[in-house]
Design a protein that fits this description.
The protein has 5 helices and 5 strands. With 168 residues, the protein is α+β, with helices and mostly antiparallel strands. The strands form 2 sheets. Strands 4-3-5 form a 3-stranded antiparallel sheet, with no helix packed on it. A two-stranded antiparallel sheet has the order 1-2. The chain is globular. 17% of the residues are buried.
């Protein structure tokens, strides 16, 4: 289904980025790319993929230092939830949460032409499902953002739960 949607935009308007190559390079460099207690990539891994996407579009990524940043430690993800062993608890992850500095309003489509405003960070997300902190996790059919960053560009990200880390 994703290929059909991307094809509808026309090859001239689509810049493809291979996240696997970027993440593989990060892993080889020893960067904190994937969580140990969860199957998702870290926000650092996501940021590097985002930076490449923006670069391919001929733009400059917002420096990571310009985001509001919170850190949660210890973070024990879904692997620990499903297999709560001591060895996993003794080797917790760090979860870095990033939020853009511009004012945002997030609207989830709940029915045709019907939207519900939702929080950017859902700090009530279960501790072992913290990747759902962004927009309450994967839910559909889509979420729409209004931003005051004085840009007139749009971006369509077709994703599963891994894509939630792109939200910031």
């Amino acid at each position: 289904e994703a290929e059909e949607i991307v094809d509808a935009f026309g090859a001239a308007n689509v810049q493809a980025v291979c996240a696997t190559d970027i993440l593989s390079d990060m892993i080889q460099n020893g960067d904190y790319t994937f969580f140990r207690s969860d199957m998702h990539w870290t926000p650092l891994g996501t940021y590097n993929v985002y930076a490449e996407m923006v670069s391919k579009a001929g733009l400059t990524a917002v420096p990571l230092e310009e985001y509001t940043h919170e850190t949660e430690y210890p973070f024990l993800g879904t692997y620990y939830r499903d297999n709560p062993k001591d060895y996993m608890k003794e080797n917790p992850d760090t979860l870095d949460l990033y939020k853009p500095s511009c004012s945002l309003q997030w609207l989830r489509c709940t029915a045709p032409d019907t939207y519900k405003e939702i929080d950017f960070w859902n700090m009530k997300a279960k501790s072992n499902d913290r990747y759902t902190v962004y927009l309450g996790g994967p839910a559909g059919p889509w979420t729409y953002a209004e931003c005051d960053n004085d840009k007139d560009r749009n971006c369509l990200v077709i994703c599963d739960s891994f894509g939630l880390a792109y939200v910031p």
